[in-house]
Structure to design on (183 residues):
């Protein structure tokens, strides 16, 4: 049996600083799917003078992976951004069935640990939006927030999550595991 390997990251906000790290990860790990959980291009009015901001460069980077890319729309992603992208962007929720597990993917502004009543019991929800990583179990559901690859909050470092062999590992940009769970 061949296991699927998936990379999850979120909240790029047009900042390309850590995308080289993502590229090197893919070269090393050869992911089957790369899932970006929203907020691709726009930094928002509260983030002025951001270094290494270049939405076109982010778009070009993501387009290189369009054959294995799944993108979700974030609260900062506009209709114009979606039309300008060379790959599809799912609006609210995507379901991935892998290794006999249902994994729901979303940005996190509409579905999250506080807003999960519409999701099936015993599901796994992977999202971003909060900009800091965590894994929590609540009411039979597993919530995995991958943090932000570009604008981390709550004293966290840029982070991402790798799924492989029924295990989710959240890593910081230095490659250290900061949280994990095996299903």
């Amino acid at each position: 049996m061949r296991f699927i390997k998936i990379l999850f990251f979120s909240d790029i906000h047009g900042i390309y600083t850590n995308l080289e790290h993502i590229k090197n990860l893919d070269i090393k790990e050869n992911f089957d799917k790369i899932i970006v959980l929203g907020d691709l291009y726009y930094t928002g009015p509260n983030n002025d003078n951001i270094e290494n901001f270049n939405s076109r460069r982010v778009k070009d980077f993501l387009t290189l992976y369009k054959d294995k890319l799944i993108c979700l729309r974030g609260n900062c992603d506009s209709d114009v951004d979606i039309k300008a992208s060379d790959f599809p962007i799912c609006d609210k929720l995507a379901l991935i069935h892998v290794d006999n597990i249902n994994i729901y993917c979303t940005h996190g502004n509409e579905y999250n640990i506080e807003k999960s009543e519409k999701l099936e019991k015993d599901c796994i929800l992977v999202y971003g939006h909060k900009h800091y990583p965590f894994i929590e179990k609540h009411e039979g559901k597993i919530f995995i927030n991958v943090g932000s690859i570009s604008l981390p909050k709550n004293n966290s470092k840029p982070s991402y999550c790798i799924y492989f062999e029924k295990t989710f590992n959240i890593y910081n940009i230095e490659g250290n595991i900061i949280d994990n769970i095996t299903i």
